Amino acid sequence: MSLEPSMVVELQHKLDKLKKEDRQLADEVAHLSLEPLTNDVQIHRLKKRRLLIKDQIQKIDALLLPDIIA
Q1: For residue 67, what pLDDT is reported?
Q2: Considering just the CA atoms, what is the radius of gyration of the chain in Å?
Q3: What does the domain layout of the chain look like in residue ranges?
Q4: What are phi and psi of 48, to 5 degrees?
Q5: Cβ-proximal residues to 3 (8 Å cutoff; 6+ apart), any chain
Q6: Which long-range contacts link 12-17 to residues 24+ away (Cβ below 8 Å)?
Q7: Which of 7, 32, 54, 67 has the fewest CB atoms nearer than 10 Å to its CB?
Q8: Using the 8-state DSSP alphabet, how is residue 9 labeled?
Q9: What is the pTM of this model?
Q10: Rounded to 10 degrees, what is the CA torsion of 16, 18, 19, 21?
Q11: DSSP secondary structure string for all residues of 22-54
């Protein structure tokens, strides 16, 4: 299955946005973890959101770079 060039560009753009959001969430979790009065519920939600983003990143990667059986 081959993707249309416009679809590839769209997926790459979405992938870039997701990776940026993942980095921001990682920074936010790290920052909140250092605070003396941490909000564990907030950190848990951020980590859960981050896992969802990582799943989306993997799905897009799989579409852009399909496994090739030689």
Answers
A1: 65
A2: 16
A3: 17-64
A4: -65, -45
A5: 11, 63, 64
A6: 12/64, 14/60, 15/57, 15/60, 15/61, 15/64
A7: 67
A8: H
A9: 0.84
A10: 120
A11: HHHHHHHHHHHHHSSS--HHHHHHHHHHHHHHH
Separation between Cα atoms, residue 46 and residue 40, nearest integer Å: 10
The amino acid at residue 10 is E
Whether 18 contacts 67, CB under 8 Å: no
Residue 18's CB is within 10 A of a number of other CB atoms, namely 18
Tens of pLDDT, residue by residue, the chain (70 residues): 678 889 999 999 999 999 999 999 999 999 999 988 888 999 999 999 999 999 999 999 999 887 666 5
Residues 28/53, Cβ–Cβ less than 8 Å: no
d(CA 18, CA 42): 20
Two tokens, residue 1: 């299955």
